[in-house]
Amino acid sequence: MTQQPVRRTGRNLAALDPDREFADIYDRMDQLLSFALGGPVSTTTAQGPWVPMADVSETEDSYVIEIDLPGVRKDDVDIQLADQLLTITGEVHEQEGKRWRRRARRVGRFEFRTYLPGDVDTERVDARFEHGVLTIAVPKAEAAKPKRIEISS
């Protein structure tokens, strides 16, 4: 007896998109971690904002945040830094007049929040937006930078 391939009829093809499923899992894990760590909870439901893909790294003198925002204009992004909480909000607008054959990019309001682990210098923050990637460099405060200690003999 041979097995016939499974036909998926009558189902939404967007629900079968592995990239969308991965993004949804990533967003849900972010919600769980934010809740468990006592941070702000971001939602992915139709009523709430979605969370863009982002990398947060640390150098000796700053924290660097890179956020993927394809199709977003810099005027549609708001960046706020209060103490150690960095919040980036904005909106990806619908493109009118197109007949979509496939759509994987998200539209609507987005929000990304992260706590920076040390004291920061809020006066020298640098934000650049190039090729759909928002890069924010937040310098560490002098007190938060590592100090080299000489060993005496």
Automatic annotation (TrEMBL):
<protein>
    <submittedName>
        <fullName>Hsp20/alpha crystallin family protein</fullName>
    </submittedName>
</protein>
<dbReference type="InterPro" id="IPR031107">
    <property type="entry name" value="Small_HSP"/>
</dbReference>
<feature type="domain" description="SHSP">
    <location>
        <begin position="45"/>
        <end position="153"/>
    </location>
</feature>
<dbReference type="InterPro" id="IPR008978">
    <property type="entry name" value="HSP20-like_chaperone"/>
</dbReference>
<comment type="similarity">
    <text>Belongs to the small heat shock protein (HSP20) family.</text>
</comment>
<dbReference type="InterPro" id="IPR002068">
    <property type="entry name" value="A-crystallin/Hsp20_dom"/>
</dbReference>
<dbReference type="Pfam" id="PF00011">
    <property type="entry name" value="HSP20"/>
</dbReference>
